[in-house]
Amino acid sequence: MAGPAALAKGERTLRGGVVGVAAQAQPTSNHAPRALLVACGKEPQLSRDMEELEELVRAAGAHPVGRVVQHLDRPDAALYLGRGKAEELRDLAVLQRAQLVVADDELSPVQRRNLEKLVGVPVLDRTHVILDIFARRARSREGKLQVELAQLTYLLPRLLGWGQTLSRLGGGIGTRGPGETKLEADRRRIRNRIAQLRRELEQVRRHRQQLRRGRASLELPVVVLVGYTNSGKSTLLNAMTGASVSARDRPFETLDPTVRKASLVDGMECLMADTVGFIRKLPAHLVAAFRATLEEVAEADLLVHVVDASSPDAETQMGAVFETLEAIGAAGRPMVLAFNKMDRAEPNRLRALLDAYPGSVAISALYGTNLDALRQAIAARLPEQAAPVEAYTPRSSRAWTRTSPRSPGKATLTM
Predict the structure, then answer these.
(1) Which of 292, 277, 283, 269 is nearest to 225 (CA)?
(2) Is the CB of residue 33 less than 8 Å from the CB of residue 100?
């Protein structure tokens, strides 16, 4: 399957990622590209935003070498930064031998083009970096389809003025009409590919619905782990179910949902699912592209919101998760709050969080601390499960029991 289009100068592509962009700018470099980070906003959130952007850039394979911040109520419409601060960024890029600039917000085509022209190195935005990380993490066919759809949806409105034409997306040979411009042909190929991806993902969505119906026949409630990226959801799934999902300490380690059976208390069981992590400023088209996956969240019997209690930004991260749940129609689902990483959290801060959110539970998924309390909290919020009782009845009796077809005369009653 051919990759998405070239983004700007040379043959830089979204699929090529952050490293590919810098390699095209300075192809002699054999090391991680040097990146300058830039953001505008207000303190104290601005500093936290830059810390998160640095983590994302590292996850995308680049090496942050400096930061430029400007305290603005809103980004400049033309340059993202004010003219003076943008010139300061240009000078710092030369001093630090930067190979690219990464902005913390999603840039408009005009902002990106103007800033790149002034600074003289490729300019990426937060959304581009997130898409690059998703492309690196995608393993299943479903994940790759969803990431490609998000990439192309992001790219389509940014074609004008981005320089080189698209790499061929396949199926376009001989289809260009007379007099059609290169830009029009590029747009048409992207739209055709987007339509094809949406058809394929609709098939994926129907397949997932069939899987959910199959799981419903087990008569086990479904519990879905949600939370900010890198909050420990996969580690918790492994601890609760014995699964072996990759749980490395890096953003967006898990893209594809994993479902396993988990034991709770008093013989109760549930199906527990891990999902893709959420993040502040999560692009809307990325949420839309992952619709098939995120429907698992919207149809869950219970959500376990896993929060990194060791993060000084925990409540802001919780707010970002709640916003995303609202966007996918899952805001009204029953929920248990699990404050994870209690082994690393400051004790007074952890106590303040538990007091602020009655019914929440402090845990350490890594060390298995307090998981029994979490099991009890989950069981208490789930619908009561019927306790199976075996009884022998006459074959003709149908008024108050259903005879098992596998064992005539033996019935399973629920009490």
Answers:
(1) 277
(2) yes
Q: Are 232 and 306 in contact (CB under 8 A)?
A: yes
Q: Which residues pair with 391 in a beta bridge?
A: 411
- How do strand 258-263 and strand 269-274 relate by DSSP bridges? antiparallel
Query: Among 227, 155, 226, which Cα is nearest to 190's?
Result: 155
Q: How far apart are the first and last CA of the chain?
A: 55
Long-range (24+ apart) CB contacts under 8 A made by 8-16 are: 8/116, 8/122, 8/162, 8/163, 8/164, 9/122, 9/163, 9/164, 10/163, 10/164, 11/164, 11/167, 12/122, 13/167, 14/128, 14/131, 14/132, 14/135, 14/151, 14/154, 14/155, 15/135, 15/151
**3-class DSSP assignment, residue 123:** strand
Q: What 3-state class would DSSP assign to 33?
A: coil
Q: What CA–CA distance (Å, rounded) separates 317 from 320?
A: 5
User: Whose structure tokens read 């759809």?
Assistant: 149
Give pLDDT, residue 64.
96
% of the chain surpassing 70 pLDDT:
79
- pTM of the complete model: 0.79
Cα–Cα distance measured from residue 345 to residue 322, given in angstroms and rounded to the nearest whole number: 22
